[in-house]
């Protein structure tokens, strides 16, 4: 594998790490209601645990309420129980076929806890990016050891990989700051 491929692969994997981090951030609740908050909830559907989005339509009813519309009649109670049993602290209520999920207002203490969670997720993403940098640098060192690249190419490549790593870490810091600002906004 040439040095250019090592750099491309490392950057692609770092991009994937940031995409995964962004996906994890959508699950963290802010002051606004987001239907993605229920993505982690799984429902017992004929003996199999499936995500709620595969058995119901989740949408916004208003700025503080989600609506969950089951696709089958008998699933309402199971969906309601799954939401209640999740660690999200939500209390759904049925209105015929429609399940309303009101979002409680967040206290200042809860907001501060969530900012700590966001920072922790950010650190995890940074660690993943740094591990990818280490793997890329090791791959380049192996190329030099196998006499497929020179030491000058190694130095240049390591500098390029460091620049890419720094760029991705800045993006992660910006995402963390943005999410913290969303959480702390009342």
UniProtKB/TrEMBL annotation:
One cellular component (GO) term of this entry: cytosol
One GO biological process term: cytoplasmic translational termination
UniProt KW Disulfide bond keyword: no
Ranges that cross the membrane: none
CDD domains given in the database record: RRF
Top-level division of the source organism's lineage: Bacteria
Protein keywords: Cytoplasm, Protein biosynthesis
GO molecular function: ribosomal large subunit binding
Name used for this protein in its record: Ribosome-recycling factor
Protein source organism: Rhodoferax fermentans
Chain's gene name: frr
